[in-house]
Amino acid sequence: MTPNMSTVDQSHTYSEGAEGFRTEEMILNMGPQHPSTHGVLRLVLQLEGETVTHCTPVIGYLHRGIEKILENRTYMAGIRYMDNADYLSPMLNETAYAGAVEQLMGIEPPRRAQYIRLITNEMQRITSHLVAVGTYLLDLGAFTPVLYAFRDREGILDLFEQLGGSRFNVNYMRVGGVLHDLPKGWLSRLETWLDAFEKSWQEFDVLITGNEIFMKRTQGTGYISPEQAVAYGVTGPIARASGVNYDLRVNNAYGAYREVAVRPVIRYDGDAFGRYMVRLYEMKESIRLIREGMSKLPGGPICTRTPIELRPPRGETYFAVESSKGEQGIYLISDGSEYPYRAKIRGPSFVNLQIVPELMRGHKMGDVVAILGSIDLVLGEVDR
Amino acid sequence: MDLIPSMPLPPTPSSAHAGTVANQQELRAVLSAFSTQSSIPMVVKMLPGGIPSLEVAAEHVYNTALYLRDQLQFDMLTCVSGVDMKTHLEVAYHLRATTKNLLMQLKAKIPPKTTVIDSLMGVWISANWLERETYDMFGVIFSGHPDLRRILLDDTFTGFPLRKDFQTTPAVLHDHATTQIDPEQAVSGDQLRGLGSNRSNANVFSQGDQERLHPGTPTFGHTQFHGHSFPTQTWKHTLQHEQEEQQKAAEKKKE
Amino acid sequence: MPQNLGFLIVHFVVTLVFFIALVATNAVIMVYLERKVMAYMQDRVGPLHYGPQGMLQSTLDVVKLLLKEDIRSQLTDNAIFSLAPMVFFAPVITAFVALPFSPFMTTGAIGTALILYVALSSLDIIGVFMAGWGSNSKYSLIGGLRSAAQMISYELPLMLSLVGVVMLTSILGHNGVGSISFSDIINAQLQTPWLWFILIQPLGLLIYYTCGLAETNRAPFDLPEAESELVAGYLTEYSGMRWAMFFLGEYGNMLIVSSVATVLFLGGWSGPGADLQFWQAHISANPGGIFSVADLVFNLIAVFWFLVKVYALQVVFIWVRSTLPRLRADQLMQYAWLILIPITLVNILVTSVLLLAVPQPYTLWVTGIVNWLMMFVYIFTLTRIIQASPAGKKPVWVNEPTNALGFMPSKTDNALPAGSETPKLQSPTPAR
Lengths: 384, 255, 432
Hints:
The complex is a heterotrimer.
Chain A: E1 14-16, E2 22-24, E3 26-30, E4 42-48, E5 51-58, H1 66-71, H2 75-82, H3 90-105, H4 111-139, H5 144-164, E6 173-174, E7 177-178, H6 186-209, H7 212-218, H8 226-231, H9 237-241, H10 248-251, E8 265-266, H11 272-296, E9 315-322, E10 327-334, E11 340-346, H12 348-353, H13 356-360, H14 365-375, H15 379-383
Antiparallel strand pairs in A: 1-2, 3-4, 4-5, 6-7, 9-10, 10-11
Helix pairs in contact in A: 2-3, 3-4, 4-5, 4-11, 4-14, 5-6, 6-11, 11-14
Chain B: H1 24-37, E1 43-47, E2 51-57, H2 61-72, E3 76-84, E4 89-97, E5 102-109, E6 116-118, H3 127-138, E7 141-143, H4 189-192, H5 201-205, H6 235-254
Parallel strand pairs in B: 2-5, 6-7
Antiparallel strand pairs in B: 1-2, 3-4, 4-5
Chain C: H1 5-41, H2 57-67, H3 78-95, H4 113-121, H5 124-134, H6 138-172, H7 182-191, H8 202-215, H9 227-230, H10 240-265, H11 276-282, H12 293-323, H13 329-357, H14 363-387, E1 396-397
Helix pairs in contact in C: 1-2, 1-10, 1-12, 2-10, 3-4, 3-5, 3-10, 5-6, 6-7, 6-8, 6-13, 8-10, 8-13, 10-12, 11-12, 13-14
C-alpha cells in the first residue's frame, strides 16, 4: 500500500515560535510493523513535540476478502471463515453467522444447542477479554499480567479442543445447532476451571486495578462521552464504559439469553480505566452466566435436521450478537441458491476504530498506545 | 485533555415522537403510515427476524434518514452494506435506536447505470468509514463525503471486488505484481458462478493453485525470466506436462 | 597495609582484572538472572536448554551478538552513530574507580568518590542523546529526547538524597566534618557494629533507589526505550556489538547504582565474618605482614558480602520491572520535580536540624525514628493522592437482573444508588 500523504493535513505543518524559532511538526508512521498496534494497523501521527495533533489510521493490510469468500461458499462451509474474522472470538462470530442463516430460514435451534452456544460464547468472551486486559497491560509496560492472562486462557482453549477438535478456529457452530454434544466429563472440567479462574480473577483485580501507575495512566485518558459513543456507532464494552446501557444480550436477546438474565456492566467514566473495568467485570458476569447456563442445561437434541444442501428462501435479514468487542452483525441476502448472494460482516472493531483519531487529539505520544489498547482492536476483523 | 477541538458531532435527535414506538411491530405500523403520508414513493417490508425495512430511491435517502433520526430517534447507524443486484446497486443501512431497542433497515436503490448517492455523514457520523468501505467494495460514490478513498484495498487496486461482474482473476497485468497468471486465461466470474458441483471448476482457474515464483527468487536456471514479466512456466504448461505424463503412462500400460 | 612497590603492582593487576571481569560478566549473569527470576514470577520456566538450567543461554547470546552483522541505515550520521556506544560505555567503566568492594579491592582512596560518581553517571546521557540523534530515526530521536529530559531531571533528587548520608558521617567520623569518600562512609557505618545508614536514612535509600531506576532506564521509568511506544527508543537502529555495548553499559549502570546504594546505605562490605581483627587473632601468626592469610580471608568475605548485597538490590530491579507498568513522559517529569525534589529537600532540612539540635547520645535515635516516620507518611500520602478516583472503584450494576421475556430495560432502570453522584449520561445534553 502506497503511503497516502494526502490524508495528513499539512496546511499548518510549519509554525513560527514567539522568538522566530521555527518548529516543525513531525509525522511519525506508527506501524504496520510495531510492537503495540495489535497486528498490522498503521497510524500516521502528526506530532507537535510529544503531543499528537492529528492521527490517521490506515487499515487494510490484513484484508482477505472474507465477504467475497463467503459468497462463494455454501452456508455451512462459510461458518469456518467467520473464525478468521475476529480471531480472538471465533465462537461468537460463528454464532452470528449461523444465527443469521437460521433467522433467514426460520429455524429455531433446540434448547440444548442454544444453551451450549451460550456457554461457549461466554467462555469465548472471557478469553477475548483476558487477551484484551493482558495485552493492554503489556502496552502500558507491565510484562507480567499478559502471561497470567494467557495461562488462564489456555484452560478454555483446551476445553474448546475437547469440544470441537481445535483450540482456536473451532468451527463448532452449525446452522440449526452445534456440531458435537459435550464430551463426557467436559462440564466438570469446566466447573474446575471456573473455580480456578475465580481465584485468578481476584488476582487480576488486586494486582492491576489498584496499581497507582496504572490508574495514573488510564484515568482520564481517551474520554468518550455517551453522545459521542452513540454517534460514532461504538458498541460493546467501550460504549458501556461511557454509560451507554446497550447490550444486545439484553436489549435484543437471542438464543438462550432470552431465558438467562444478563446484568450488563455499566460505568460512567468513559475513559480507558472504565473500559478496563468493564472488561474485568464482564468476565465475572460471564462466569456467572456460564454457571447459570450449566445449571439450566436441558437434554435433548443438539441440532435440528437440516438438509445437506441448505437453500434458504429468497430474502434478506440482519442478525447481530453481542461479541466481545461489540455488535457482531451479519447482513445476509439469499437468492434461493446454496450460496449467499451477499454476506456482509459488520465488525465491531472496524466501527470502533473510527473514533480513535478523535480520541488521540491532544494526547501525549505515550497515551497513543494507552488509548489504542483500550479500544481492543482485532485487525483480522477490521480488515476482514 | 482536548487541546484541539474535535470534529463536531451531528445534532442529537429531538424528541418529537419520543416514546410512541415500543416495539418492532409498532415501528412497522409507523413506517407504513409514514410511507402513505409522504410524497416520496416507499416500500415497507418486514424482514425475517422482525426487522422492518424501508425502501426508498437514492435521491430521497438523505431526507428519509433525517426523518428517521429526528422523529423516530434512530440515533445509531450500525451498518452500511452495498448490494449489487446486477441491474442496479443498492445500499442497505441498518439503524438502531439505542434508547428504545429498535432495529430497522433503510434501503436505497441507486438508479441503473449510476453509482451516486448522498452521503449520510451529516446525519450519522459513523457513516464515514462504513461508506468508504462500501465505495471500496462496490464503487458507490457518496456525494458529500469529505474523504472518499479506498479503505481496505490497495490504492492502486482497479475494480470493485464485491460487484458480481468483478473478475477474480486479474484482467490487468501489473508490472510489479507477483500474483500474475496469463491474462489471456483470466475468466469472468460470471461464467464460473454456478450451482452445486459446477462451481468446483472455479478452483482450477482461480489464483493460488499454481505455483508461482517471486521475481526476486533465485532460480538457478530452472526458470527463465524475461525482464520483469511473469515466468514462462505457467499453469498451462503444468497442465500440458501432466497430460503428457498421463499419455506416457497410458502408453506404458498398453505396452 | 604497608606500601611496597611489588605489592602495589600486584594490587593494581588484581583489582583491574577483577573490575573488568565483573563488568563483563555482570551483564551475562544479570540477563540470565533476569530471565530466570522473571520467569518464576510469571509462571514460566525461562531459559532451559543450553547448559544446566539454561545457564549458558546468555553467554551464547553474547557470542551471537559478537558475530552479528553491524547494520546501519544509509542516512545515519556516521561519526555520531559509531561513537555513541563508546561514549555511553566509557563512564560506566570509569565509575568503578570509585567503588570499594573490600579494603583491598579498591583502586585507591579517592577522597571525592561521591562527586565523581554523580558526575560520571550524568555523562551517560551524552551517549544516549548521540545515539538518538545519529540514528536518523524518529523513534530514536524521541527516545533520546525523553532520555535527556529524564536523566537530567532525576540527577537532582538522586544527588540530594545522598546529602543526608554525608551529614550523618559528620556526626560519626570526623568530628563534625562530613566525608564524601566511599571508604570513609563505610568506615563510619562500621564504627558501631551494624549501624547501617538504612536504619537512619530509609527515605534517602527509597528516593535514591527510585532515581536509580530512572537513571538506568529501568521499568517503570523505561520511557526512552519504551517498547510498546517507541519500538526500542534510541536503540532502534543499533544491532550487533554496538547494541551490546549499550546493553553492557545499562547493566553496568545497574551494578554501579546498586553498589553505591550498598556503600552508602547497607554498610558496604560489613557482614558476619567480615572482621579483620577476628581473623588476625585466630589465623595469622604475624598480623603485621604485607598481606597475610587473615587479610585474604577477610577480603574474600568482604567481597562476598558486598556482592550479595549488590545482587540482592539488582534482583529488586528485576522485581520492580516485572510488577509495575510504565509511567507517561509528563507524569515522569512531574514525579521528579513536584514530588521527589521537595521531599529530598525536606529530608535534608529535617536531618540537619535534628543533627544540630538533638544532644549527642540521642541524635541517631531521634533522626532515625523521624526519618522512618517521614518515609511512611510519604508512601501513604502518595498512594492516597493517586488513588483518589472520582468514579469509585466498582462498576455500576443494573439493579435488577434484566430478562428479555417481556421486560425491556430502559435507561431509568440504571439509576445509581441514592446519594451517589449523578452520572454523566443523565445530565441534560446541551443543545447543539
